[in-house]
From TrEMBL:
Statement: the UniProt record of this protein carries the keyword Transport: no
Gene name in the database record: lgt
Stretches that traverse the bilayer: 19-36, 56-76, 96-113, 120-140, 175-192, 199-217, 229-257
Matches recorded under Pfam families: LGT
Location(s) in or outside the cell: Cell membrane
Organism encoding this protein: Pseudomonas indica
Molecular functions per Gene Ontology: phosphatidylglycerol-prolipoprotein diacylglyceryl transferase activity
Enzyme Commission number(s) from the entry: 2.5.1.145
Amino acids binding a 1,2-diacyl-sn-glycero-3-phospho-(1'-sn-glycerol): 139
Domain of life: Bacteria
Pathway membership: Protein modification; lipoprotein biosynthesis (diacylglyceryl transfer)
Annotated GO CC locations: plasma membrane
Record NCBIfam families: lgt
Protein name (record): Phosphatidylglycerol--prolipoprotein diacylglyceryl transferase
Length: 262
């Protein structure tokens, strides 16, 4: 068993002002995405200025935050938020959904594309390889917060998390997701997008690979307490939300190459 590194979730405390590592992970994800996008900008559209790229990153980041929060409310704990709507604004208590964030990004990208003469999938193909930076940073934030841990296990790399009331050795599922959704997905998309691909193909590859990776990790991750398993004694909400991504990703890739062949 590996010891859990005791990291204070508060990175910086200046009197009553506290800056949490989880919040810094969002800044790292957004900053890293902007940096990579600026390096890929000329290949995407040499007529675009850095200011226009900054506008795109701003609207995408807004979509991540608003969509992630509202997605968690709708998908994971709607009755609690209906009973006490003020909880929606209490983001410091946690509760962000990747799938909600993805919907927020899609809506903000569609809106930005209409205003700047770019199709939805042109922009989504450009954005997709940037997303794993934020996903990986977010999972490190989950690990520092000792949240979203996995099921009990006797594997040699199991950890006991201080937030676990049972104090059992568990899968460090946050690190699994960091490795798959962050590192592996980043490498796959960067390698795949190095060569020209038909429009929609990179977006499809993102949806397919993320859906598969998340679906697999959900088998060893403890489901949200208020939901538990939805069916068969193992199906979680995360897996339910990933199934359309897997099917949609396959469909987008097939459609993209079929259109290219025509």
């Amino acid at each position: 068993m590996l010891p859990y590194p005791q990291i204070d979730p508060v990175a910086i405390a200046l009197g009553p002002v506290k800056i949490h590592w989880y919040g810094l992970m969002y800044l790292i994800g957004i900053g890293g995405a902007w940096w990579l996008a600026s390096r890929r900008l000329e290949r995407f559209d040499p007529t675009w200025s850095r200011e226009k790229l900054s506008d795109l990153v701003f609207w995408v980041a807004l979509g991540v935050i608003l969509g992630g929060r509202l997605g968690y409310v709708l998908f994971y704990d709607l009755p609690a938020y209906i009973a006490q709507p003020s909880l929606i604004l209490q983001v410091w208590k946690g509760g962000m959904s990747f799938h909600g964030g993805l919907i927020g990004v899609m809506l903000s990208t569609w809106w930005f594309g209409r205003r700047n003469g770019k199709s939805f999938f042109e922009l989504m193909d450009f954005i997709a390889p940037l997303v794993p930076i934020g996903l990986g940073a977010g999972r490190i934030g989950n690990f520092i917060n000792a949240e979203l841990w996995g099921k009990a296990t006797d594997l040699p790399w199991a950890m006991i998390f201080p937030t676990d009331p049972q104090q059992l050795p568990r899968h460090p599922s946050q690190l699994y997701q960091f490795a798959l959704e962050g590192v592996a997905l980043f490498c796959i998309l960067c390698f795949y997008s190095r060569k020209p691909r038909p429009t929609m193909a990179v977006s499809g590859m993102f949806a397919l690979c993320y859906g598969i990776f998340r679906f697999i990790v959900e088998f060893v991750r403890v489901p949200d307490a208020q939901l538990g398993y939805l069916a068969f004694g193992w199906l979680t909400m995360g897996q339910v939300l990933c199934l359309p991504m897997i099917l949609g990703g396959l469909g987008l890739i097939a459609w993209a190459y079929k259109r290219q062949a025509r």
